Amino acid sequence: MAEQTFLCSATNEVLPDLAEASKDILEDKLQSIGVETHDDFQFIVEEDLLSALRPIQARKALAAWKFRCQTPETRRS
Protein backbone atom coordinates (compact mmCIF):
# COMPACT_ATOMS: atom_id res chain seq x y z
CA MET A 1 0.00 0.00 0.00
CA ALA A 2 1.47 3.33 -1.04
CA GLU A 3 -0.38 5.13 1.75
CA GLN A 4 1.24 2.97 4.43
CA THR A 5 4.67 3.56 2.90
CA PHE A 6 4.07 7.31 2.81
CA LEU A 7 2.99 7.42 6.48
CA CYS A 8 5.82 5.12 7.51
CA SER A 9 8.45 7.29 5.86
CA ALA A 10 6.89 10.50 7.24
CA THR A 11 6.98 9.01 10.74
CA ASN A 12 10.54 7.72 10.40
CA GLU A 13 11.76 11.11 9.17
CA VAL A 14 10.61 13.00 12.25
CA LEU A 15 10.81 10.34 14.99
CA PRO A 16 13.47 7.83 13.90
CA ASP A 17 14.05 6.52 17.44
CA LEU A 18 10.40 5.78 18.15
CA ALA A 19 9.68 2.13 18.96
CA GLU A 20 8.19 0.14 16.06
CA ALA A 21 4.96 -0.52 17.97
CA SER A 22 4.58 3.20 18.64
CA LYS A 23 5.25 3.98 14.97
CA ASP A 24 2.48 1.57 13.98
CA ILE A 25 0.07 3.26 16.40
CA LEU A 26 1.04 6.69 15.09
CA GLU A 27 0.61 5.61 11.47
CA ASP A 28 -2.84 4.20 12.28
CA LYS A 29 -3.75 7.46 14.01
CA LEU A 30 -2.58 9.58 11.08
CA GLN A 31 -4.54 7.40 8.69
CA SER A 32 -7.67 7.58 10.86
CA ILE A 33 -7.63 11.40 10.93
CA GLY A 34 -7.29 11.56 7.15
CA VAL A 35 -3.63 12.31 6.43
CA GLU A 36 -3.14 11.39 2.77
CA THR A 37 -0.43 13.75 1.48
CA HIS A 38 2.53 15.71 2.82
CA ASP A 39 0.41 18.86 2.67
CA ASP A 40 -2.07 17.31 5.14
CA PHE A 41 0.56 17.45 7.89
CA GLN A 42 0.16 21.22 8.17
CA PHE A 43 -3.40 20.74 9.46
CA ILE A 44 -2.54 18.38 12.32
CA VAL A 45 -2.78 19.77 15.84
CA GLU A 46 -1.05 18.40 18.92
CA GLU A 47 -4.29 16.97 20.32
CA ASP A 48 -4.57 14.74 17.24
CA LEU A 49 -1.38 12.94 18.24
CA LEU A 50 -1.66 12.66 22.01
CA SER A 51 -3.33 9.25 21.90
CA ALA A 52 -0.27 7.93 20.05
CA LEU A 53 2.61 10.04 21.38
CA ARG A 54 3.80 11.77 24.52
CA PRO A 55 3.40 15.57 24.40
CA ILE A 56 7.05 16.35 23.61
CA GLN A 57 7.15 13.71 20.86
CA ALA A 58 3.96 15.15 19.39
CA ARG A 59 5.41 18.69 19.43
CA LYS A 60 8.66 17.53 17.78
CA ALA A 61 6.76 15.70 15.06
CA LEU A 62 4.45 18.64 14.42
CA ALA A 63 7.31 21.13 14.25
CA ALA A 64 9.20 18.97 11.75
CA TRP A 65 6.15 18.23 9.59
CA LYS A 66 5.02 21.86 9.51
CA PHE A 67 8.54 22.98 8.59
CA ARG A 68 8.59 20.50 5.70
CA CYS A 69 5.20 21.78 4.49
CA GLN A 70 6.46 25.33 4.11
CA THR A 71 7.49 26.57 0.73
CA PRO A 72 10.57 28.76 0.37
CA GLU A 73 8.26 31.74 -0.10
CA THR A 74 6.47 31.17 3.21
CA ARG A 75 9.59 30.43 5.27
CA ARG A 76 10.81 33.31 7.38
CA SER A 77 14.48 33.49 8.26
TrEMBL record:
Recorded superkingdom: Eukaryota
Name this protein carries in UniProt: Uncharacterized protein
